UniProtKB/TrEMBL annotation:
Keywords: Coiled coil. Transmembrane segments: none annotated. One of its GO terms (biological process) is negative regulation of stress fiber assembly. It comes from Scyliorhinus torazame. It comes from the Eukaryota. This is Rhophilin-1. Belongs to the RHPN family. SUPFAM superfamilies: HR1 repeat (SSF46585), PDZ domain-like (SSF50156).
Amino acid sequence: MTESELRGNGSVRKGCDPFAQTQRSKLQHRRARINQQINKEMRMRAGAENLLRATTNNKVKENVTLELSFVNSNLQLLKEELEELNSSVEVYQNENESINVPMIPLGLKETKEVELTIPLKDVIEEHYNEAACKYEKELKELMDLRQAMRTPTRNEAGIELLMEYYNQLYFIDNRFFPPTKNMGIFFHWYDSLTGIPSYQRALAFEKGSVLFNIGALYTQIGARQDRTTKEGIDHAIDAFQKAAGALNYLKENFSNAPSLDMSTPSLNMLVRLMIAQVQECVFEKVMVAGVKDEFLMQLQSAQEAARVADVYSLVYQTMTQPPVKNYVPFSWTTMVQVKSEYFKAVSHYFAAVALCDHTRKAHLKKAIIKHEEAMRIHGLCRILRKMDILQEVLALVHKRSLKKYSEIDHEDDFFDTVEAPEIHPKTQQKPDIKTPNFSKVKVTDIFHRLGPLSVFSAKNRWTPATEVHLKKSEKGFGFTLRGDSPVLIAGVVPDGSADEAGLREGDYLVSVNQQDCKWSKHTDVVQLLKNISTEGVSIGVITLITSEQHNQTDRKSLLGTMTSASIFSGNDKENSRKIADSSKSPGLLLTWNKKKNSGKDGSTFSLPFIAVADDGSFY
């Protein structure tokens, strides 16, 4: 385990060490290295192509063209190496000695480190008017969480870690990313299958990539289960259904994805692949459970196998259509085709065992033919030829069919001309696409101390907190309160202490005698004020600034020729106080205009989130 860990809700969150000496972690480390090399070669190619377009010197063109050929050759070799790693499905399988047909898992998307501390400190200082140094602990916790989620463990704890970060991004988005402004933060992620880097300023890209990894990790969890037991098969079914749900959720809520692995055609293919693997597990479940009536069991097995063959055939069709065709590893496409032929053969085998009529021999012949076709297709793929488990399974079932055929070979050859009928596919358990249940991982807003999100968010503007001293009279302080977190000034008594101090209806009370009250309940603030002596109290208030007021103030600050006194009459206390308070910190109002644009935004997309309570917790 790494030193990257954080504590949330009393539990420790950790990522696994990518350099640990385990097959899976070493594989992921090699993927990361290849991703970096591909990124470097692509930058070199882009530079060479730009130079080639710009130069008119024939000698330079010749040298650049030669350099481009080397770069393209290196890129092709790197992509082939990455494809072979993506085809290394044996690393993710269960390590017991049982023989199972291998499943196809997804590798995790890799990401580069991103520096969030400085930009978030700027927002805390400029937008929230607070000292950023007070939030060092929160900033470190966020960075630790992002670092840990890059290497999640291959179990439920790893899923919870990814979901915790995903849920936390809801708060980060609302706290620090204004809907109309650019933070200048780039999120870099590599395509899961090609290693091609993509980067965007949109936080939605970060959310989508984490969601992809949730689905990918579920595929790895499903592949590692011991499918020789009913319990192991049930766990595998659950994991693959949740993988399908995460990937389908991503497909339905994303548009204009910057990388191929998160494009609609790719996600559609991956969802179908997961459903097919669920169906395969259902067949294995029937085989493990068994049925008292041997005939019914064999007939059910034949129909289940036919169903598995059908869904893998659909996946194969999807994989061989552009644009997915040129994107999916050849070994995946081959394995899916092998499985389709394999389960057709298995289906005919069980039909032959179940039946005693003249089609029995025809079904066995069909089974043998399909087994041999599966073995032929398997032999065409260099990577699959190295996969001992799959080879062993194909050889065993082929021998089983040959042995059965030899047992009945003495029967009358008159029936050899009969064509085996197709077997009607039927399943006892239809796969279910399980949408991620994000609410099961409870999180608290890391930057909870900034105040309730309903008021203290990136989209809202408010005046700097104003300290007002009030004296208590026989009628009290001259104002009424309502609401919770933060408490709102509901009314101000004319000519009372609060009125004379400039308090107005709609102001938020955020402190009492320097005690922070942003999260205080109504009853707590009332009790606090009741305990104040007659000498008076110092309260801090803020006023939300509407978009119209904000724009007006910006224009006045930019012109620099008007003051609040020259615009509003003395009778207009509310507006004059708002502008006067705002003018105390002009940097607050102009902070987003001072930022420089570093280029055009890429395509953006949005993801829905679950509801959040006022206290900052998910429900």
